[in-house]
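In this section we walk through a basic example: taking a raw amino acid sequence and producing a predicted 3D structure, encoded as discrete structure tokens. The instruction is simple. Fold the sequence below.
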Amino acid sequence: MKIALFLIALALMAGCATYQPKPISPSQVASEFEARTLDNPRLKQFIEMNLGHEISPWPPKSWDIHMLTLAAFYYHPDLDVARAKWGVAQAGVITAGGRPNPSFGFLPRYSTNPPSGVSPWYLAFNLDIPIETAGKRGYRLEQAKHLSEAARLDIARATWQVRGRLYKSLLDLYTANKTGTILSRKLAVQEELNKALEQRFTHGAASRPDVTEARLSLEQVRLSAHEAQRQAADARVQLADALGLQVGALNGADISVDFLERITPASKLPAPELRRQALLTRPDIVAALSRYDASQSALQLEIAKQYPDVHLSPGFIWDQGQNWWSLGVSAILPIFNQNQGPIAEAEARRRLEAAAFAALQAKVIGEIDLALASYCAVLQKLEMVESLLPIQQKKLQSTQAMFNAGETDRLALLSAQLELETSTLSRLTTFVDVQQSKRSIEDAIQRPIGPTGPLDVVVPDTDPRAEEINNK
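The resulting token sequence is shown next.
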């Protein structure tokens, strides 16, 4: 018997998990982050797998929105956090599916004055086998699975947030570069205009206030041009952060923002279809449904707990050379407490999840309607601004012809050029407002629209860099 007990204990110990320390080294984590690059061969494999074709040459000559999005999905730490949270929820499913272990009892007794010829030992063994009733384990498993699904959907939500920050940084970079180009031209025209005014002032053909105002305008344009350069530098840093890289990793990379030159007509954004897409596919809405289902399973579990579990207790007693066998059955009597409190709490949580889901749906519908109204309004504004550009261009052409014919002076020509650049800058500002409004619509439905989407990417539930990290 001793050998059998030893073997059983040994088998039980063999199935136990052991602790493996994994200390975190801040310097090592920082070094690994700084070592990330856009020419990583494993990044190439990940992008090719999702795009469905080979990329040659590598690294590519130009990084478009699709490849940058995939690079962000590969590197960004927010997705690592979301996947880790899902891992915790998955472990909760294992916990919920666990069955209660039986317990074993051994109660030896020794008599100090046994009768002659009788063993002084009294040995008792008992086994307690708990049996869950009313389907408690099934309800517990269902609740954990629904919560796990909600956590998995949070990965998709985090993925969209990563893409949103990438889009914003690209739009900021586009705006800063375009603004800088226009302001450089405007600065050159303003400098020539100032020189012409100062020459007139020297010959008494211009007043000092006119010259002073022109100088102030010149300094203002210079400050705006420097600000555009600063914004471009900031946008590159934000772009690197959106990709999960340090800014040095972007050195030598040609970032394409051509997709921002295109506009999606309002006619291709029907409100009913957008609402339907959002209410059926938005990850946070589907996750809210999973949390509601989990609250229902939790209520079922608490109701099932009204019915007590059963404990089977077989036992064996060796008493003075006699063998006694027993079989006991026990259960908690639900006399003073029928689990009313936990049931009430579970019902309240279910009502809370239902209210949260309804509130989220209403919020999403409001976001879509507001974003669409803003998009239509800013599109109309863009049409008005763009209708003025041909007028300014014709005016410049007319002034140029008059200047060539000697019918007007250089000051008038420079003023017409300056007005055109100012109108061009105004058009850019309005165009960026259109792209930002479109981004608001995408945020409302959490899905790309227009020329940049949809991008059908398999959201990696596991870390795509896991093999790369394990090989280090």
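Looking at the output, two observations stand out. The mean pLDDT is 88. The chain has twelve helices and five strands. In the next section we compare this with other chains.
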